[in-house]
Amino acid sequence: MSTATTATGSAPSRAYLDLLEATTRRRALAFEPLTSTHTGAPEAAAAAVRRAAAEGRDDVATLAGVVHDLAEVAFEEHASVAAIADLLTRHGIEVETGTHSLATSLSARVGLAPGDGGTGTIAIVAEYDALPGIGHACGHHLIAASATGAFLALAAQARDLPGEVVLLGTPAEEGGSGKELLWREGFFDGVDAAVMLHPFSYDVVDHPFLGRRQLVVTYRGVAAHASAQPFMGRNALDAAALNYQAVGLLRQHLPPSDRVHGVVREGGDRPSIVPELARLEYYVRSAHPETLRDLSRRLEDVAVGLALTALDWLHDGELRAAAVADFEAAGGVVDVEGYFA
Ligand SMILES: [Zn+2]
C-alpha cells in the first residue's frame, strides 16, 4: 500500500474581510447614538449592577475558561451545565437543569414574577455547546459566561427588581436547534423579551440573522464488486457526488443572502465495493420564512432528481415503480429523511 497524500490549504486572502472591517469602522463612526424615550434604571441601581458585575469578573472569566476547555458538543453539555449551575448555586440561586426533554437545559429566575405583581419577564440566554473536533470556535463559552455573569449581577439586586429576570440555558446550537426544541415545549413561555451576546471576529453594527433548516439526504444503491462486476452495482456515492455538484450550481441562482453548506457523512467503505449507501448533510439558511421554504424545496428536488439520474430509477419500469412506491412510503431506494424542524 502506498502512503496517503495530504495537503493543507494556504490561508485565504484577507482582502474582502479587510474591506468589511473598514466599512464597519466607517459605519460605527457615523452611527447615531441610540436614544430611547425610556430613561433606564435609576443611576443608583445601574451603579449597583455595574459594581456586582465588576465583583463577579473573575468568576465569569473562570467559567468561560472551564466551558471552553470542556468543549462539549450538542446535547452532551453535561459538565458545562454543571459548571454554570455550580456558580449559580454558590450565589444561593436555585437552578433547574434537564427540564423539557433536554438533559442539558438550564433555568434560574430572580426578581418579581408577573404572578406576584412583577412588570414583566426578561430572559438572558446562555449557549454552551462546541463544534466536534474544533472546539469552541463560535465562542459559546463566552455566551455562557457573559449570560451567567449578567444574570448574577442582576440577581445581586433581586430585591429591587421591578420584574423578573430568567437565565435560560439552551443546548445544541451548533446543529440540533436546541432553542426551537425547547420553545416548542414551552421553555420560553411567559418571556416578554430575550437578550443574548454572541461574539464575532469583528464588531458588527447590524448583523443579519438567517433562519436555518437541516437536510439529511441518504442514497441507497446496490453494492457490487467494483472491478469484477461494476455493471451490477448502482453507486450511491455517485448520487451524493452529483447532488453536491448540483447544489453548487444552484448557488448561482439563489438570493444573495441564502446560504447552503453541506458535508458528506458517509460515502462507502472500500474502493473495491460499489458504495451501497451515501449520506449528505446540509444546513440551509435564508433570511425569510418564505425564501427558506423555497430554498428547502429546491434542495429536496435536487435530492430526488439525482436519485433518478445516478441510481437508475428510469432503467427498468418495474424497478422504477417499485422505487417510487418505496420512496413515497418513506423507506425506499431514496430516503430523503426530511427537514429537521
Ligand atoms: Zn454560535
UniProtKB/TrEMBL annotation:
InterPro entries: Amidohydrolase, Bact_exopeptidase_dim_dom, Peptidase_M20, Peptidase_M20/M20A_hydrolases, Peptidase_M20_dimer. Coiled coil: none annotated. Signal peptide: none annotated. It holds the Pfam family M20_dimer. Gene3D superfamilies: Zn peptidases. One of its GO terms (biological process) is folic acid catabolic process. This is M20 family metallopeptidase. It comes from Miniimonas arenae. Residues 215-302 form the Peptidase M20 dimerisation domain.
